Amino acid sequence: MYWYEKDYxxxxxxxxxxxxAFLFFGKRELPSVMGPECREDHDFLRRMVDSxxxxxxxxxxxxxxxNAVWDGDQKAALILSFYExxxxxDDDFLRRAGFSRDEVYEGLRDALRLIGREIPEYLRI
Length: 125
Known about the structure:
With about 120 residues, the chain is mostly helical. Helix content is about 70%, strand content about 0%.
């Protein structure tokens, strides 16, 4: 895959996350939708990603989605924020962490499905 194709996918994922944040919440500041406990987990997941543990952070995210008692809006905000953050990492960082842009999109899609939400057809890659 050429660099401009990767950049295109990165921009698509960013656009999808921003559009969904606006569609779901009417805003782009996702942490403001989260309660205190959700924000704590949000920050913890970001620290895991920053340390290169993206796969483990994603596993933790799905565990939280299945077991946390937060409402659907908080879970959706956590999903969008998580994948937007991962998507912001450069390709070398993702490769070293064993993650790809395709996995970012697939994870976003699967996590939203888990909580009963979908990426609208017109936003799908």
